[in-house]
Design goal:
27% of the residues lie in helices and 28% in strands. By secondary structure, the protein is α/β, with parallel strands linked by helices. It folds into 2 domains: 2-150 and 310-342, Quinone Oxidoreductase, Chain A, domain 1, CATH 3.90.180.10; 157-288, 3-Layer(aba) Sandwich (Rossmann fold), CATH 3.40.50. Strands 3, 7, 8, 9, 10, 17 and 18 form a 7-stranded mixed sheet that branches. A 6-stranded parallel sheet has the order 13-12-11-14-15-16, with helices on both faces. Helix 6 (203-211) links the parallel strand 12 (195-200) and strand 13. The longest helix has 14 residues, at 151-164. The N and C termini lie close together (10 Å). The relative contact order is 0.16.
């Protein structure tokens, strides 16, 4: 089978790999759609992120969906021909965190396409994938396989909503309107947000943010005063989803959050300084959010029932042989929101 393999920064190859053996409780999935994520782009452009570096060839990818081609012994709820979204989250379910229901913090996590451990965890950008049956969630007949491949990044934002708490009637700020920011808007709207304001420094992504549910969009590079106006009377927003990883976005968000509001940090970045006095005086809660677990099934359910429509976020689909062009396109924020590979 063919697979998309990263060797080093800007060294992406399509290589032949052997299909793994189908075991008990497992299924063989013909991967048909795979979304290129921000972490995939970090591996492609920089060979990693932070202290995480590619130290051996690694198959990329974790946002995938496809069709079951074979089922192993003991699999009863899936059959050949079922279309499924595949969760890349494979916790051990035996460590202290898993036993406390915090599987996203599993110390033995095998998350597809991760260079954190050595040997690396191989990813899912391959023509055939052997997966555990519990990773696979059926896709409704009227849902395209490309929509199904959005389940993973959407689950990330559903976990962020869980970290934020109830959004019913809340005023929400979203900073950074790439795929995760845009999906945060959709997730917040689905969970009852009263008003959503989105910011970025690029008009192209702000336009898309408006299309998927933001009530107002602000280009903070051109008109920062439009956001700062919300700082009157100690602030305006109840919840801030920070998806840019930019320190200035964190600070400007704190300024417009009302007392006892919540900042949920999704975006990854370097070390940032924050105005501690402001956090203390306004009693702001700062919460991290990392991956997901049970939210993956919820994401598939919401997509299947069309309670959310993610189709507007798909910018382009490239064949496997054009993987390098796909990665280059995915890295161009002025033109692309979510780029997928077809296998």
């Amino acid at each position: 089978m063919k697979a998309v393999v990263i060797h080093a920064a800007k060294d992406l190859r399509i290589e032949d790999r052997e299909l793994e053996t189908l075991g008990k409780g497992q299924v063989e999935v013909a991967i048909e759609a795979g979304g290129i994520c921000g972490s995939d782009l970090h591996y492609y452009n920089h060979g990693g992120f932070g202290t995480v570096r590619v130290r051996e060839p690694m198959i990329l990818g974790h946002e995938v969906a496809g069709t079951i081609k074979a089922v192993g012994e003991g699999v009863s709820h899936l059959v050949t021909g079922d279309r499924v979204a595949v969760s890349p989250s494979r916790p051990c379910n035996a460590c202290d965190y898993c036993l406390k229901g915090q599987q996203n913090q599993c110390v033995n996590m095998r998350f597809y396409g991760s260079a954190m451990p050595m040997p690396h965890i191989q990813g899912a950008f391959r023509q055939r994938l052997i997966a555990e049956d519990w990773q696979c969630h059926k896709v409704a007949d009227d849902i395209s396989i490309n929509e199904a491949a959005f389940a993973e990044p959407f689950a990330v934002t559903l976990h962020a909503v869980n970290r934020a708490g109830s959004l019913a009637g809340k005023r929400v700020l979203v900073t950074g309107c790439g795929p995760i920011g845009a999906l945060s808007i959709i997730a917040a709207r689905a969970h009852g947000a009263r008003e959503i304001v989105a910011t970025d420094v690029m008009d192209a992504v702000l336009k898309k943010a408006g299309e998927v549910g933001a009530d107002r969009t602000i280009n903070v590079a051109n008109a920062p005063e439009e956001l700062s106006s919300y700082s009157a009377n100690k602030g305006y927003f109840d919840v801030h989803f920070e998806a840019s990883g930019n320190g200035s976005a964190v600070r400007s968000g704190l300024e417009v959050l009302k007392p006892r509001a919540t900042l949920v940090q999704l975006g990854l970045g370097g070390d940032v300084s924050i105005p501690q006095n402001m956090v203390v005086a306004k009693e702001i809660e700062i919460r991290g959010t990392f991956r997901f677990h049970e939210e993956f099934g919820v994401a598939v359910d919401l997509i299947n029932s069309r309670r959310v429509d993610l189709r507007a976020l798909l910018s382009g689909i490239y064949p496997l042989v054009d993987a390098i062009q796909a990665f280059e396109a995915a890295g161009d924020r002025s033109k692309s929101m979510k780029v997928q590979l077809a296998f």
